[in-house]
Task: structure prediction
Amino acid sequence: MKKLFIIANWKSNKTSLETKDWFQGISNFQFPISNKEIILCPAFTLLSNLKSYIVNPPAGEAGHKSSLKLGAQDISPFESGAYTGEVSAKQIKEFADYVIVGHSERRQHFHETEEIIIKKLEMAQKYQIKPIFCISDISQIHNSSFIVPKSNIIIAYEPLSAIGSGQADTPENASNIASQIKKIVGEIPVLYGGSVTSENVASFTKTPYIDGVLVGNASLDAQEFLTIIAHA
Ligand code: PGA
Result:
């Protein structure tokens, strides 16, 4: 059975109180699930709280949650220092094992260029934080694919038209792109992202080349996220 990555990208959502509710919502769920790696990517403000929940679950909520992993949604292209507003790799490393790099929303709203994305991948590599490198087009792979060794990167294919639109790509097309990515980069995990729900997740994860999903909107609801994990 292939290993699947199920990643929650909460984007700019959830206060600490809402996070507590979400965590209570998953409290009866039995982790770990042998072939599934579950990674939560909350806002920076919530990483510390989530780490505490995972390491020391509240009384009555079993320690099975310790199998959850954390990821950041972004990383500074610079080392720690005089870069107001940035969160450096060294700081992230305290809380997270993964980091999303190159998400299309960052490319679009924050004008992230290939050059910046490459620096972010380099920082992640230097501090041994595994990047979840997002691309919306296969052409975005070329410049960046050699920065991080194959054993230490995950690629997420997220077509622009599918993100937040409710119009997921077809599993056939997504699997075909995943296979092309593997031909270029080699045998690394390739995920699909864009309007994944509990209803369509299996159609992606059962294809031969897709190794999991990056879930935005549908991960905000604890029950829906648990159902995604169960159906994947
Ligand atoms: P979505 O977001 O599931 O809300 O489409 C996915 C993503 O942007 O990673």
